[in-house]
Amino acid sequence: MRLVIIGAGFAGMYAALSAARLRDIQGVSPDELEIALIAPEPTLVVRPRLYEAKPETLTAPLLDVLNSIDVVYVQGSAETIDTKIRMVKVSTAGGTRKTLSYDRLVVATGSRLFRPNIPGLAEHGFSVDSLDDAVALDKHLHGLADRPARNGRDTIVVAGGGFTGIEAATEMPARLRAILGKDTRPRVIIVERNAAIAPDMGAGPRPVIEDALRRLGVETRVGAGVSSLDENGVTLSNGEHIETETVIWAAGIRAAPLTQQIPAERDNSGRLLVDQDLRVASVPGVFATGDAAKAACDDAGNFALMSCQHATRMGAFAGNNAAAELLGIPTKPYHQKAYVTCLDLGEAGAVFTRGWERKVEMVGDVAKKTKHEINTVWIYPPRAERAAALASADPEHVTEV
User: Fold this and answer.
1) Residue 330: predicted pLDDT
2) Could you tell me which residues come within 8 angstroms of residue 57 by beta carbon, excluding any fewer than 6 positions away?
């Protein structure tokens, strides 16, 4: 029997750990149940941190962890999924192709930044969506030091006032001063189409966020979008033109395109609709998890968000349940009633909220300390020691805060 997992992000990593944990508990050998993980590199990109400086350091190796739990790593990109014959075609960096059959498949392909067809965006826009994107932005920011201090050199426009946009924007004043000199007066502007900044956060934490933006000198343009970009700056939908050499696009994400090859229903973000076991009900043998799946967290109408907090726990349930089906034992319905947010606000600290109503529990330096622990400890892979790695993936105990 073979269980194939596509993706080495938070959901894919925990799917592998959890499946291997259940296999170990049941006393089944790796020869009887092979667990294979497909990804271009055996590396976890710590995506929630890509707004930070030195993004090339924000990765964690996975090969030793996978080896310690007897998970087979298949290097390459899943190119084609044929659910009728249960086969995945994989392309490698060297240009060769291989096929991998499966008895159960876990789709943990994550998400991608949504880039609309706005004139100039592809040529002049930056992002912090992927490691390569973040490295390109960092290189560009350092290159500003070689340019004259005019034509919007010290101005950064962030398109999108959600989680990613706010964290990128509030980090930029300090990053620019570190590059251009402490006497530099950066101008950072967030552009948000909705009537308020942080539209998904609600009324509770918004005053904290708005106060932090004021203290950092971050401007906002709400009720407006980006119409076009060129080498001189950005034009907004209200007609305003802002001179800038740096536009960071942070306006929405979609499930990775590979999910479109699964013949099943999706939501507006391209996520596959799944049942309580994270099974794609209309496609036998296929599970979806993390940003690739729309899953109910509880019976109160709350659904998992496209975040590492949900992806880790969803991954653990998906891996466990896919292995459980193959081993003929009961599955565990996914549930995630606890939910917190911890939003980085740069030099203004952070804001920590609890519950779907986002009740503010911590602000400022206290919340920043928690954010630092989340970013540097909690979301990193377990150590490459078999017992510890397997123990970390009990689906009932992963990321319940």
Assistant:
1) 97
2) none
- Which of 214, 249, 284 is the endpoint of a domain? 249
In a domain, 71, yes or no: yes
230 lies in the same domain as 259? no
Residue-wise DSSP of 113-160 = E-----TTHHHHEE-SSSHHHHHHHHHHHHHGGGS-S-TTTTEEEEE-
Residue 297 CA to residue 305 CA, distance in Å, equals 9
| pLDDT at residue 94 tops 90 | no
Cα angle 241, 166, 153 (rounded to 5 degrees) comes to: 40
Residue from 205, 206, 222, 213 nearest 188 by CA: 213
Q: 119 and 108 share a domain?
A: no
Among the candidates 336, 367, 389, a domain finishes at: 336
Q: Are residues 225 and 240 in the same domain?
A: yes
CB 318 within 8 A of CB 272: no
pLDDT digit string, tens, across residues 149-185:
888 999 999 999 999 999 999 999 999 999 999 999 9
Residue 380 lies in a domain: no
Average pLDDT of the residues of the chain: 95
Model pTM score: 0.94
The label of the residue with tokens 């622990």 reads: 373
In Å, what is the CA distance from 58 to each residue of 174, 265, 376, 381? Answer: 19, 34, 10, 12
Do 178 and 240 belong together in one domain?
A: yes
User: Per the structure block, which two tokens stand in for 272?
Assistant: 């596959």
Let me know whether 86 and 7 are in one domain.
yes
Is 290 within 8 Å of 110 (Cβ atoms)? yes
The set of residues, in sequence order, having a beta carbon less than 8 Å from that of 268 and lying 6+ positions away, is none
SS3 46: coil
- State the total domains in the chain: 2
What tokens appear for 294 in the block? Answer: 């729309």
Across 170-200, b (16+ Cβ under 10 Å) vs e yields: bbbbebbbebbeeebebbbbbbbbeebbbee
